[in-house]
């Protein structure tokens, strides 16, 4: 039974989410002490975190950053803040998804179940994938460039795997969204852009330029 940690200060929303997730046989932990979010995270070791932005004491960005210092656990932001900048900040902090209030609970549940499946059942044969100076280490979700090992988030890893596996082919944004998030209707298109840019930056910082190329109006390609 997957353990879900809900960090939401609005009691009605927190309880509504908790009740619905319990129906899906998920083990729910609802945080109420917002001074000790990180301590509780370490204690319960959840498989997924639902995290609001506007919280007492410290905001969700702070707690996301703290969690990312020690864990790659899936994090979904749930927030009434709906600007592109909020979503970009969340993804740059290491969030895996972002859903805006008000939302339909069944859509949130679909996102949670899809993310759990991808995060804990995603397996491919073989231990390494190599192309044009990058070795993708499948066993630990990292890449090696010029003897430097670079850690990747789950979404960065999946993007690079798909692009390397089908190098030489242009992959449309819709295809990448479907591959990453099961149903692209539930994902802001900006989420893909943020993850592509973050992955490109890591590759460039490790010494390879223009590894992922944009084909305007078509998608992305690893030549």
From TrEMBL:
<keyword id="KW-0804">Transcription</keyword>
<feature type="modified residue" description="4-aspartylphosphate">
    <location>
        <position position="52"/>
    </location>
</feature>
<feature type="domain" description="Response regulatory">
    <location>
        <begin position="3"/>
        <end position="116"/>
    </location>
</feature>
<dbReference type="InterPro" id="IPR039420">
    <property type="entry name" value="WalR-like"/>
</dbReference>
<protein>
    <submittedName>
        <fullName>Response regulator transcription factor</fullName>
    </submittedName>
</protein>
<dbReference type="InterPro" id="IPR011006">
    <property type="entry name" value="CheY-like_superfamily"/>
</dbReference>
<dbReference type="Pfam" id="PF00072">
    <property type="entry name" value="Response_reg"/>
</dbReference>
<keyword id="KW-0597">Phosphoprotein</keyword>
<dbReference type="InterPro" id="IPR036388">
    <property type="entry name" value="WH-like_DNA-bd_sf"/>
</dbReference>
<dbReference type="InterPro" id="IPR001789">
    <property type="entry name" value="Sig_transdc_resp-reg_receiver"/>
</dbReference>
<keyword id="KW-0902">Two-component regulatory system</keyword>
<feature type="domain" description="OmpR/PhoB-type">
    <location>
        <begin position="126"/>
        <end position="223"/>
    </location>
</feature>
<dbReference type="InterPro" id="IPR001867">
    <property type="entry name" value="OmpR/PhoB-type_DNA-bd"/>
</dbReference>
<dbReference type="InterPro" id="IPR016032">
    <property type="entry name" value="Sig_transdc_resp-reg_C-effctor"/>
</dbReference>
<feature type="DNA-binding region" description="OmpR/PhoB-type">
    <location>
        <begin position="126"/>
        <end position="223"/>
    </location>
</feature>
<keyword id="KW-0805">Transcription regulation</keyword>
<dbReference type="Pfam" id="PF00486">
    <property type="entry name" value="Trans_reg_C"/>
</dbReference>
<keyword id="KW-0238">DNA-binding</keyword>
